[in-house]
């Protein structure tokens, strides 16, 4: 069961070779045993999880099972789940029991999946190392002294340590792909608008997108099938026909006699900017190795350019904080969440509550965001950044005229040490340099394990597709995973 | 030296949708605190706004009614500030691109017409309410009103007196009810005005303005603006300077007093709300809304003046509401419009007001008034008796008043007049007989009249009317009496 994929577990459950109670209990036992080692979780509720597992077993027995019925999943603590503590990694929500389900949670429970636990994360998803969490940093299962990446660090660590078969995350500037890469798992950020943001605590609304983390591309497809779909409660949710993201997973192109080349004719775009000075040699080496593998599968490579990509980090650090400064205004101590125990008047209550309730990184971004929206600065920062955002998106439009999918490293380096970049925000921000532009353009991005670098730290390969090309991207990743086994490797120390 | 007053108004009209602008909660007034506050209204973590189409439709209706430009693409923006009754820490409003720009409203002050130009009208959500009593040193928050849809309607500084401002507000108030976008209930806060007031010497640039809030009746608006004009003139005449500030009107003391100055003005950090896509309106929808608009008050006013030759004053009175205008129009088409106007603004209005009945619920339907006025004109009943008949119509003593078609009603009503013996006596012989009797019995009065006391004549007329129970044709009585006395 340890290394079983969601697909395998689903088929075992459907065939009644195993019950949801058994699977759920197995992972909860692992969470209880190892969750603390990595600090990957914020809350577990065994009773609730087992009750859901029992209900799932009844559905299976009644022949009413859906694809994920009975599968325990770990959810990032950014998703409201009815009756569950939902903290977003912050002290300010450290007492908040959500009274409703997020769209994503609702879809999983309709599908019969079980909530195994809620995962640790950077506070309000602001961070790239899972060190900004009020609940403390998460350790990388491949190296306990290293970060797992962030902000979905708990989810990535949970999948890497096989504490859950799959997990959910959210990605505003790389928060699914970067921890997936650093923790050696697969993570997908869908096209903006594919997964409803309803019930997902907002960081930067125009960039936030939920997605799955799992061991295989095929599992990502099964997860996305449940998560995706129009939701009238989110005005930015896209009204599209429901699609089966696993439909193309085994699609092979070319003649039957060329089975060895299932990706024949696929044009991989390699942006020069992704392979320039900033990337660490061990990362470059692993990524080049996996691209060579893709060539063996029949792909061609073309050089493309994203000339405005160097602007993506500064643009992002204007727009995301601007939206965040406003989105986080509701945490004021008035209606729910933490309130300072002592204060003299209303203004003092606001000040103390927010001073005590938010961590340093969140405060930094609220300050930056408030500044860039202020009278007299708005045009120079916010408006300018919006214009550049369009240029960055246009770069991709131009690139996709020359290629079918873009590939490159997900991150410039492998997992860094806990504390190594915590004192230097700019260094930290630069660890998302390859992922941020994808959010700014609203495109789908995928990170898959592509080997190992120095100190046996996992390396992630990023695939960037055109809008709504998730099914195709997952097919490409799946074909790669048919001929490689990086994604099935497990860290030492997780077997108990 | 003379002073010139410059006034602009900002009005918040609560749109009459059943649910809120960004959530499904009810907008009904008066529910127990927080019973109409959903997850979205409380601003729980993770919730998102979804725009109410009905609110947009009402804004379009308004824009079309004032001849404004409907922006087919408009943007919702966040206005950021902290206050306990503002749950998200920002209000969703429209800033750079409102749904309506321009347009105008014609007002009548006395018999003078004037055009007030509108700057814009934009959609936004209302805040909740802070309750400072009953919580022993703490404040309570009621979020029932949070998220109620508002249309903020802003004028150019086109008004030059408190009276003009009040006329504009009344005209706007009538319009929003006319086109059915707002119930206009000022006590419940469905229609709230703020006034920007400044004074200057004629020809000078605009003076520094004060914004006056809390004008929740037309009377208060009049008083507050008049007070404010006086206050500003006094300051300037004493060589002082008016400071730009927000002032609150206190109706108990009839004065305005400072609320906050410009220095305290907040930086609202407006930016486009990323949770809401730009609001894009199809031409098809605009055409549909336009086609469904009722005939507008301005058009009806002009028609009344042109076709029925009413004065501007009467035309304004009779278009105070759509129901009233439709009622009048239904009658004026059939009988003398001036008589119709008199009956409606006189007898009917006073009874409706006395009993607080809306014209739509009047027990006297237009058919009944058409008949009644018709019978006055054709001489069947006298004007005096008509008032009694009107009372009987009102009291439902005339069978079928309002329930029958006009021809059927006429038959019934005529039968009623006959039965009650109310017909006017126009038989010359019959009146002459009574006149003779009165002359014979009132030698003294006649002497007085002949010695130059014209009042005595009225007394004689009165006696004839009394003898006929008011049914004698007054013109004939006058004519006969005069002739006989001259003999």
Strand adjacency order, main sheet of chain A = 4-6-5-10-11-9-7-8
Structural class of chain B: alpha+beta
Number of structural domains of chain B: 2
Quote the beta fraction of chain A: 5-15%
Structural class of chain A: alpha/beta
CATH architecture annotation of chain A: Alpha-Beta Complex
The total strand number of chain A stands at 11
Shape of chain B: elongated
Largest sheet of chain A: 8 strands, mixed
CATH class designation of chain A: Alpha Beta
Query: What's the domain count of chain A?
Result: 1
Supply the number of helical segments of chain A: 15
Distance between the termini of chain A: 12 Å
- The string of secondary-structure elements of chain A, in order, is HHEHEHEHEHEEHEHEHHHHEHHEEH
Describe the structure.
The complex is a heterodimer of chains A (496) and B (487). With 496 residues, chain A is of the alpha/beta class. Chain A has a single domain (1-496), classed as Amidase signature (AS) enzymes. Chain A contains 15 helices and 11 strands. Chain A has helices at residues 6-14, 20-38, 46-61, 103-110, 153-160, 177-183, 217-227, 281-296, 312-327, 346-357, 360-372, 378-399, 425-430, 436-441, 470-483; strands at residues 41-43, 72-76, 114-119, 166-171, 186-189, 209-214, 267-271, 300-304, 405-409, 445-452, 458-465. In chain A, β7, α8 and β8 form a beta-alpha-beta unit. In chain A, α5 packs parallel to α6 (177-183), α9 (312-327) crosses α11 and α9 (312-327) packs across α12. Chain A starts with 5 loop residues before the first helix and ends in a 13-residue tail after the last helix. Chain B folds into 2 domains: 4-285, no CATH class; 428-486, Arc Repressor Mutant, subunit A (Orthogonal Bundle). Chain B is 40% helix and 19% strand. In chain B, α8 (322-332) packs parallel to α10, α13 (428-441) crosses α16 and α15 packs across α16 (474-486). The longest helix of chain B is centred in the middle third of the chain and has 20 residues, at 218-237. Chain B is elongated, with a radius of gyration of 30 Å. Chain A binds chain B through residues 79-80, 86, 88, 93, 96, 98-100, 102, 197-202, 204-206, 232-236, 322-323, 325-326, 328-332, 334-336, 346, 350, 370, 373-375, 378, 382, and chain B through 39, 42-51, 78, 80, 82, 84, 87-90, 141, 267, 269-271, 274-277.
């Amino acid at each position: 069961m340890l290394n079983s994929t969601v697909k395998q577990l689903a088929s075992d459950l459907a065939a009644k070779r195993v019950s949801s109670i058994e699977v759920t209990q197995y992972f909860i036992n692992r969470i209880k045993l190892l969750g603390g080692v990595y600090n990957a979780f914020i809350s577990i509720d065994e009773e609730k999880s087992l009750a859901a597992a029992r209900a799932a077993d009844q559905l299976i027995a009644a022949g009413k099972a859906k694809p994920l019925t009975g599968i325990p999943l770990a959810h990032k603590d950014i998703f409201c789940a009815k009756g569950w503590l939902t903290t977003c990694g912050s002290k300010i929500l450290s007492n908040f029991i959500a009274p409703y389900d997020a769209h994503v949670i609702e879809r999983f429970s309709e599908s019969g999946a079980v909530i195994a636990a809620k995962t640790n994360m950077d506070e309000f998803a602001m961070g790239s190392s899972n060190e900004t969490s009020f609940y403390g940093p998460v350790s990388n299962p491949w190296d306990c002294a290293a970060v797992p990446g962030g902000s979905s660090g708990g989810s990535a660590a949970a999948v890497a340590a096989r504490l859950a078969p799959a997990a959910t995350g959210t990605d505003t500037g790389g928060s699914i792909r970067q921890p997936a890469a650093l923790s050696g798992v697969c993570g997908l950020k869908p096209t903006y608008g594919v997964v409803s943001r309803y019930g997902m605590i907002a960081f930067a609304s125009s960039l936030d997108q939920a997605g799955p983390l799992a061991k295989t591309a095929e599992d990502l497809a099964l997860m996305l099938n449940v998560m995706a779909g129009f939701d009238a409660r989110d005005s930015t949710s896209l009204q599209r026909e429901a699609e089966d993201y696993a439909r193309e997973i085994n699609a092979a192109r070319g003649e039957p006699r060329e089975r060895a080349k299932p990706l024949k004719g696929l044009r991989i775009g390699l942006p020069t900017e992704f392979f320039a000075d900033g990337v660490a040699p061990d990362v470059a080496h692993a990524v080049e190795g996996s691209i060579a593998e893709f060539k063996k599968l029949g792909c061609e490579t073309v050089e493309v350019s994203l000339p405005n990509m160097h602007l993506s980090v500064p643009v992002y650090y204007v727009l995301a904080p601007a939206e965040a400064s406003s989105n986080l205004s509701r945490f004021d101590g008035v209606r729910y969440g933490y309130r300072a125990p002592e204060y003299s008047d209303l203004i003092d209550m606001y000040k103390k509550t927010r001073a005590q309730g938010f961590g340093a990184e969140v405060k930094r971004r609220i300050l930056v965001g408030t500044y860039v929206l202020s009278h007299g600065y708005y045009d120079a920062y916010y408006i300018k950044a919006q214009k550049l955002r369009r240029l960055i998106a246009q770069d991709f439009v131009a690139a996709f005229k020359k290629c079918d999918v873009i590939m490159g490293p997900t991150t410039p380096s492998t997992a860094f040490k806990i504390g190594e970049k915590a004192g230097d925000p700019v260094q930290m921000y630069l660890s998302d340099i390859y992922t941020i532009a994808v959010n700014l353009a609203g495109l789908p991005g995928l990170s898959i394990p592509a080997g190992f670098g120095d100190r046996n730290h996992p390396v992630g390969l990023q695939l960037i597709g055109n809008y709504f090309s998730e099914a195709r991207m997952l097919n490409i990743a799946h074909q790669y995973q048919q001929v490689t086994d990086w994604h099935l490797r497990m860290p030492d120390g997780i077997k108990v | 030296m003379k002073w010139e007053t410059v006034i602009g108004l900002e009005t918040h009209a609560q749109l009459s949708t059943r649910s809120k602008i960004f959530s499904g909660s009810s907008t009904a007034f008066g529910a127990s605190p927080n019973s109409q506050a959903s997850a979205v209204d409380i601003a729980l973590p993770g919730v998102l706004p979804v725009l109410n189409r009905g609110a947009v439709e009402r804004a379009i209706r308004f824009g079309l009614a004032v001849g404004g430009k409907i922006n087919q693409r408009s943007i919702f923006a966040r206005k950021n500030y902290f206050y306990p009754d503002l749950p998200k820490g920002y209000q969703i409003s429209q800033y750079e691109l409102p749904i309506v720009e321009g347009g105008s409203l014609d007002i009548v002050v006395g018999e003078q017409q004037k055009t007030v130009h509108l700057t814009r009208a934009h959609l936004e959500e209302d805040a909740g309410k802070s309750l400072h009593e009953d919580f022993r040193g703490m404040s309570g928050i009621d979020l029932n009103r949070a998220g109620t849809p508002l249309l903020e309607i802003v004028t150019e500084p086109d008004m030059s007196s408190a009276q003009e401002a009040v006329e504009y507000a009344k005209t706007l108030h009538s319009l929003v009810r006319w086109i059915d976008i707002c119930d206009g209930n000022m006590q419940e806060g469905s229609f709230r005005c703020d006034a920007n007031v400044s004074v200057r010497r004629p020809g000078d640039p605009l003076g520094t303005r004060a914004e006056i809030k809390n004008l929740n009746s037309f009377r208060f608006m009049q008083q507050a603006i008049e007070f404010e004009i006086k206050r500003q003139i006094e300051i300037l005449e004493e060589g002082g300077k008016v400071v730009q500030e927000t002032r609150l009107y206190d109706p108990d003391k009839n004065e305005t007093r400072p609320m906050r100055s410009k220095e305290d003005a907040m930086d609202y950090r407006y930016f486009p709300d990323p949770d809401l896509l730009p609001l894009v309106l199809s031409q098809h929808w605009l055409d549909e809304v336009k086609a469904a608009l009722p005939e507008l008050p301005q058009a009806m006013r002009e028609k009344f003046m042109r076709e029925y030759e009413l004065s501007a004053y009467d035309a304004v009175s009779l278009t105070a509401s759509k129901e009233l205008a439709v009622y009048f129009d239904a009658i004026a088409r059939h009988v003398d419009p001036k008589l119709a106007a008199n009956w409606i603004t006189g007898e009917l209005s006073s009874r409706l007001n006395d009993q607080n009945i809306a014209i739509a619920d009047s027990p006297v339907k237009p058919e009944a008034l058409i008949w009644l006025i018709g019978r006055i004109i054709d001489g069947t009943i006298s004007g005096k008796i008509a008032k009694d008949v009107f009372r009987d119509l009102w009291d439902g003593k005339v069978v079928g008043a309002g329930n029958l078609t006009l021809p059927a009603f006429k038959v019934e009503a005529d039968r009623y007049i006959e039965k009650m013996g109310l017909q006017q006596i126009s038989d010359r012989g019959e009146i002459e007989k009574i006149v003779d009797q009165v002359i014979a019995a009132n030698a003294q009065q006649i002497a007085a009249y002949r010695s130059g006391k014209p009042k005595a004549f009225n007394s004689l007329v009165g006696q004839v009317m009394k003898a006929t129970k008011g049914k004698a044709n007054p013109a004939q009585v006058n004519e006969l009496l005069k002739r006989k006395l001259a003999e």
